[in-house]
Specification:
By secondary structure, the protein is α+β, with helices and mostly antiparallel strands. It starts with a helix and ends with a helix. Helix content is about 55%, strand content about 15%. It has a domain of about 120 residues: Glutaredoxin. The longest helix has about 40 residues. Strands 2-1-5-6 form a four-stranded mixed β-sheet, sandwiched between helices. A two-stranded antiparallel ribbon has the order 3-4.
């Protein structure tokens, strides 16, 4: 009988300890957010200056898959210097679109035909998408590989556009000197 009472006490203490640990984790866990931009052209200019694409995450408040992608994949990339911004579905704050027009975040989401959260987009020169969108969270085991693949494609596109622009600038200089 004493043995059963001791086991029950140990189990109860274990349960209380786990509950306290869970609450402590929830209290101490920092909410990791991505920056929200008020100007996509400015964010793109910063990205291109760093010779990188602009990564935009279309997110939905309260979306657990958005949280997974933001905290486990995009935030670490941002810490390594990649320009990443977040645009929220159902958010009425204004942003400047790539074409210079003012638009709400929610309207921007609709304009780009985004229907699933999270969606990650990759932009290069002149606000053009330079890699395939990542729609949804996929399987967590493979999401990082999908993200790395599209990021590599986007980086190649940005580098190719920069080289093409440099060639055009050089040609204009030569033609200007010849005439």
């Amino acid at each position: 009988m004493k043995s059963l009472l001791q086991r029950r006490t140990v189990v109860q203490r274990l349960m209380v300890g786990l509950a306290i640990a869970g609450v402590a984790d929830a209290v101490w866990a920092a909410h990791i957010a991505l920056p929200v931009t008020d100007s996509l052209p400015n964010a793109l200019a910063n990205a291109l200056q760093a010779k990188q694409p602009l990564v935009v995450m279309a997110s939905l408040p309260g979306c657990p898959f958005c949280k997974l992608v933001r905290e486990n994949y995009l935030h670490p990339l941002r810490d390594s210097g990649l320009q990443i911004v977040q645009i929220d579905m159902r958010d009425n704050r204004s942003i400047v679109d790539f074409d210079g027009s003012s638009i709400t975040q929610d309207a921007w989401i609709r304009k780009y035909g985004i229907k699933l959260a999270p969606t990650v987009l990759f932009f290069g020169i002149q606000g053009r998408e330079v890699a395939s969108r990542l729609k949804g969270a996929y399987l967590p085991d493979f999401y990082g590989a999908y993200l790395d693949e599209q990021l590599a494609i986007a980086r190649q596109a940005v580098a190719a556009n920069r080289q093409s622009q440099a060639n055009i600038n050089s040609l204009n200089i030569v033609l200007g000197r010849i005439s």
